[in-house]
Amino acid sequence: MKNNTNIVIIRQYGSGGREVSSILAKKLNMTCYDRTIVQLAAEQLSQQENYELNIDELIKTSYKRPQEQIGNLGDFAFERIPYFNKMYRQQAIVMLKIAQKGNAIFLGRCADVILKDIPNTYFFFIYADNDFRAARAKNHYGNHTLEDLDKEAKNREKYYAYYTGEKWGDPKHFHMMINTSHISLEQAADLIIDYIETQQKN
């Protein structure tokens, strides 16, 4: 795999996309930039006029914060969107800076739109059947229901539409869409690696 490769993962809530991103990060020795790291970088950027992104220090600092829990619903409450207008812009700047250096994995954060023009960047959508998501809602999300996950997914779709003007999950944004209902999450990660390596041989 080329040294300047970026991977974007957009996932349906409850599909295991976060875990797929973590597996990829370990297999490829890349850093996965999720909500915690990107938001922290955006906060630092807004506080410093001439901010130079220090990735290593940023990651160390993020681990000192309370980490995002898998079962944390309410990530993108639509009513809070006006508050995030400036933060969204700052996050986009940070993501573009990171992506231009390459060797990064981006989870969510509208990255499929923000990074669409960055060379050697590959986009994947992770989704799952309702039965699979219902089981994960109960076992991995603090005994929540599929309806809880769907409600949160709607909030995320509104957030995405508000900032990008695009339809969340539109296949035209992705190189591959993977259903994790009938394969392991590690197999999903391997599919992504195989796809990128095949494309880079052409």
Description:
The structure is a single chain. With 202 residues, this protein is α/β, with parallel strands linked by helices. The protein is 50% helix and 12% strand. A five-stranded parallel beta sheet has the order 2-3-1-4-5, sandwiched between helices.
* Total strands: 5
Write the element-wise H/E pattern from the N-terminal end onward.
EHEHHHEHEHHEH
Shape verdict = globular
Average pLDDT confidence is 82
Q: Could you say which structural class the secondary elements and strand pairing correspond to?
A: alpha/beta
What is the share of helical residues? 40-55%
Strand order of the largest sheet: 2-3-1-4-5
For the termini, the CA-CA separation is: 12 Å
Characterize the largest beta sheet: strand count, sense, and whether it forms a barrel: 5 strands, parallel
Low-pLDDT segments, ≥5 res: 62-81
Residue share in β-strands: 5-15%
The number of helical segments is: 8
Provide the gyration radius in Å. Answer: 16 Å
